[in-house]
Amino acid sequence: MQVEDGRRSWDRGLPLRYLLVAADGEQVWARCADAEGLFADPVPAPRERLTFLGCDPAGPLRTAVEQPAGAAARLGELCLEVGDGKRPVEWWGLTDAEVVDRRPSSIGPALVDVVVEAGVEEPEEGRAELTGQRRFELFAKDSLGTCEGVEGLYVERSGPPEEPMKLIGCEPTEELRAVLDAPESGAAAELWALDRTGRPMTSRNLALDVVEVRPSALGGDLLDITLADGVDDPPPLLAEPVWEAWYEGVPDTLNEWARFTPEGRHEWLKVAFRNRASGRADVSGATYHVDGTHVTDVYGLHCALGEALHGPGGYYGMDWQSFNDCLGGGAGVVPPFTLVWHDAETARRALAGVVEDAEEGLTYFEEIVRRLERYGVVVELQ
After folding, report:
1. How do 73-83 and 200-208 pair as beta strands?
2. Among residues 166, 248, 172, 171, which one has the least CA distance to residue 11?
3. How many other CB atoms are found less than 10 A from the CB of residue 327?
4. Contacts of 302 (CB under 8 A, 6+ apart)
5. Which of 79-88, 99-108, 207-216, 354-363 has the lowest mean pLDDT?
C-alpha cells in the first residue's frame, strides 16, 4: 500500500489513529486504531562524577571555580563538544551539571581541574573513533572554556530499560506480514499519528523488534502487535493532551496552547513545527499583531509569535536558534514587517529572570525584540 494511495481511513466503526510506514516513508505497512505505551517520560540519566583536567574556564564556569573550596555551583544543562584537533566530532549532554570541587592542575600553572556531577547523555550519533589528541570544550549558550581531558567520560554505560509498546487493532498489509515472518527483527519503520481527517500530524521512528502478534480484542482480522521497545524520542506523558488537541485538526482559534504548562507548550511547538506550511514563497511588508496575554514563559512567547505571523497553530521557531533560522528566510514571513505586540508588559514581567545575555544583562524578551529590530522589523510594544 503506497502512502499516496490515500488509504488513511477505514470503515470499521472506530477511529484510525496511526499509520505504520516503511522507513523510507513510501509504503504503508499497517493501519492501527491505537498505540499503548507510546507516551513515556524519559528516565533521568544517573548522576556521575567527571573530572575535567587542565581547564581554562570562562563565563559561569570561571565564576564557579572561583568559589571557595567545598562550595557547590550549579551550571544546569551543558553540552560537551569533543574535537579531533581539526573539527568537532562528538557532542555529549550533561544534565543538571554542578561543580563540586576544583583544584590547581598539574598540566599548567594557569589551569584548573574541575570536578562536575551530572547526568551524562551519550552522543546521539554514537562515539567517534578518535586516535589523536582530543579537544574538549564546554558550552551552555556560549563557551565555558576548554579542557585537556575528562576522566570518567569514556566508560561503559547501560542505556535506559526497554519499555514495550503495543500497536492495537492493526490492519496489516502483505508487506508487513512478510516483515513479521522474516527471521530477522528490528526493521526500521515510522509511526505516523493522524488527525481526525486522516492527515498526518506528527511521527516517530521505531524498530520492529516484535515480541508478540495476536488477534486483536477489537475483532475482525485486526492484530495487536507488541514491540520490545517504544519509539525513538518518545513523547512525554504531558504531550498526550497536546496530541489530542491537534487530533481535532489544525487549530482554528488563537491561544489553544495557552492552557498547557511550559513543557506542554514546548510539545505544542514540536507538533506545530511538523505541521508548518513549507514550499511557499516568503512574504514581507505586512503588519502582524501578537496577542501577548498568555506569554508567561519562553515557549509561550514562541507560540504567540508563530500565531501572530501564521495564524492559529502557526510556527516561527521554538527557541533562540530556530527563531533566528526563521528570520533568515524559508518560514513564510521575512523582514521587513511590522509587529504590534499587545500586552507586552506580560512578557517583560514573566521573563524578567530569564537572562539570555549575561554580559549585557538582557532578558530573553529583550533579546527577541532586539533581534527582530536588527533584522528590520518595526516592533511596537503596547
Report:
1. unpaired
2. 171
3. 20
4. 269, 316, 317, 318, 319, 323
5. 354-363
Sorted by sequence, the CB contacts under 8 Å of residue 353 that are 6+ apart come out as: 363
Residue 248 in grid coordinates: 481535532
In this structure, how many other beta carbons lie within 10 angstroms of the beta carbon of residue 28? 22
* C-alpha to C-alpha distances, 176 to 34, 189, 360, nearest whole angstrom: 17, 10, 57
DSSP string, 221-236: T-EEEEESS--SSPPP
Rounded CA-CA distance 230/205 in Å is 9
* Entry pTM: 0.80
**SS3 state of residue 116:** strand
Provide φ and ψ at 315, rounded to 5°: -130, 130
pLDDT band at 8 (very low <50, low <70, confident <90, very high): low
The 10s digit of each residue's pLDDT in 231-286 is: 988 999 999 999 999 999 999 999 999 999 999 999 999 999 999 987 789 999 99
| Ordered DSSP codes for 124-163 | TT------S--EEEEESSSEEEEESEEETSSS----PPP-
Alpha helices, DSSP H, located in the chain: 59-65, 174-181, 240-247, 262-274, 298-310, 320-327, 344-350, 364-374
Q: Is the Cα dihedral 118, 123, 129, 133 positive or negative?
A: negative
Domains of the chain are 3-41+161-235 (2.40.10), 47-151 (no CATH), 239-381 (3.30.370.10)
Cell for 96? 543538571
Strands 378-381 and 88-104: unpaired
Per-residue model confidence as pLDDT tens digits over 52-79? 999 999 999 999 999 887 788 999 999 9
* Alpha-carbon gap, residue 226 to 169, rounded angstroms: 11
Cell of 320: 533562540
